[in-house]
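Bench log, entry 3. Co-assembly request; chain sequences pasted below exactly as received.
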Amino acid sequence: MQAQATSGPKKKVKSISYSHWGYIFIAPFFITFLIFGLYPIIFTFRTSITDAVGWEKILNNNIIGFENFRQLFDPNSLVYSKFWGSLGNTMIMWFFNFVPQLGLALILASWFTDSRLHLKLQGFYKTTIFMPNIITAATIGMLFMSFFAFPIGPVNTFVQTSGIANMPIEYFRSVAWSRGLISFIQWWMWCGNTMIIMIAGISGINPSLFEAALVDGCTSRQTFWKITLPLIKPILVYNLTTSLVGGLTMFDIPHMMTQGNPNETTNTVARFIYTQGFTGSRNFNMASAASVVLFVIIIAGSLVIRYVLNDHDPKPGKVSGKGAIK
Amino acid sequence: MKKILSLVLALALAIGMMSFATAEDGKIKLVVWSFTNELQGMIEKYYLPNHPELDIEFQIYPTDGNAYTTKVDNTFGANATSDEAPDIFTLEAAFVKHYVESDWTGDLKDIGFTDEELAVAFPVMAQIGQNSAGVQKGLSWQSTPGVLMYRASLAEKYLGVKTPEEMQAKVADWDTFLETAEELKTASNGEVKMIIGSGDIWNAYQYQRSEPWVVDGKLVIDDELLDFEELVKTMEQDDLTHKGGAWSEPWFAGMRGELPTLCYFLPTWGLHYTLKPNCVAGWDAENPDSEENIKKATEEGTYGDWRITDGPVAYSWGGTWMGINAAKAAQADDAKKAAMHDLIKFFTLDDDFLTQYAKDSGDFVGSKAAVDKILAEGGTPNPFLGGQDHYAIFASAAALANGSLMSEYDDTINSLWNDYVTTPYTKGEKDLDTCLTEFKEAVAAAITTITVE
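Structure output for the full assembly:
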């Protein structure tokens, strides 16, 4: 590819540059991004330092400085405990979703790519595991809501008829159940997606490395820890970062299923932003300020992940670079 | 050649993206927004055939996930006079107050309504369509008074009640309502419950207040609300309800009779669109009036077993109001104003149309005059209610309900009240003072424009 591109035009008398087509082809993305991505971001930053409360003031507002941020960081303000509490809830639910997700996805991915195991019906398993990801989150939220309905619902009927409990259990008034179910759904929905990315990452490793390991008498476990894991670090960074972004902006499942109940223990940051911006008096300024704080937290988190996994030890990065070229 | 082709394609794309909304020559162009196709169907069926001069563009955005309000807010916030913005738009009970309090909706008198015309509407519906200064900004073609619906067979078996009048005496106020619930529990050994859950009472009970949530920019917690908490707590703790939420599976199971429940608090639309289609599993929605369907619903379900009575308090639940875009109405010429006036008047205040519409759809309409006309013609015995005439009972509830109890932030405050007070307090998780403190904090955080003390 590369060779053709550079040597092709040289042979001709008049050099014709096709490079502008490249710009034209990527232009739609950048135009869309500028309008629907960058502009709203700048708008949010601006709104966060204004007194924009209510739609009437969304365009005609006054800049009041960092008052909204002060409130978010002032322990005596009303939004302080709600905002930081929701961040804590989000972290807890993200943690219990992400750790099992990454673990299981890694195990499954290494099984599916293991030439010694050579699993049958791989396509079927992969599809089944990936399937929950293509269903809308809102649908799954509704599904679980009716599963765990109180006092009559499939789960309550089951625990009563099977003798596990003699009274129906009100799952969505229990903090552990509510958070647990949300984490479980997130895990169940995204595990397949993470697995597919991991498989892609592992497939990108030069097979001769695995063959060499096999010849040298490595056990499966050794191959996994010493070859697979170090070589898919870039994929791990990608996965951790996207999961961090997705996890901290978690909204649909808690919003559909619990509305932040019981007692705000499943209220996520995105729900806090939503309730500030789109209920009550529509405090767009506070919602924007919280979004900006969340933005900073996510950037900081992503940088930490990058630093810890990538730049810490330059050696595996080099190897992975080589391994990636087929 | 290629260049020309790509130019043509690009142009076609650009034009396609900008689908212009232009009126046909000489016609009056109106943009109408709604959240269901109900109004569109009504206009197309009853109005457009006689008004060829109109060119109406309908836009429907669902209320799910606040799609409709978000669309309204975005459009009006950006440019209320754009081609896309509505001339006439419908407002649901959940957000009608919010919009009539804003400057976006216009005074109906600006497009030609007079006091005499407005007087025929039921006061409760008219009041809800007014802002706090009393300016009429919205009108409803329906009236949605709420009543108490109960199972005649259960009432007779356990309470010895034979007529709706006797039942009314058992639920005349909330104290007797509670006594009746206890009586029912004893008589049925706890098998039959008075209601499905506390959420059911709320829609009625909030009309027991004397003031809305927000008065002069201040949060008001009416004493009646504290009584409501005590009532609900007693009912929950004494096992007088099935502890299910409204619109949940148990709620519908109770309608089918699978979960024996005596009472439901439902308004007009609840009778036809909620209770009736859910009175039996497998209700035939395609042919609801077919003989087999009625037979099945009567034998396996609760068809014909329901009666209605006023209940402890006259209330209203729901409704759809038609409002006008103030900015566009201000720019409209006289012909367009007259067209808007005529259309809204036809659907909300015209006796002949509303009488006809009530007969065609079974809806309970918003004009007092039309309702009187239907009653004078000899009522509407309803086989679903064992032959009882629902129109008469609805008419008395509609005349009594107090429409001044709704305020702009009801939607937010009601859900906060439920999340922070009713649920934790009645389930015994927290004491009332803690609940009230947390509720006030939540209101103050959500609504920064009102004072909370």
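Chain A is about 70% helix and 0% strand. The radius of gyration of chain A is 25 Å.
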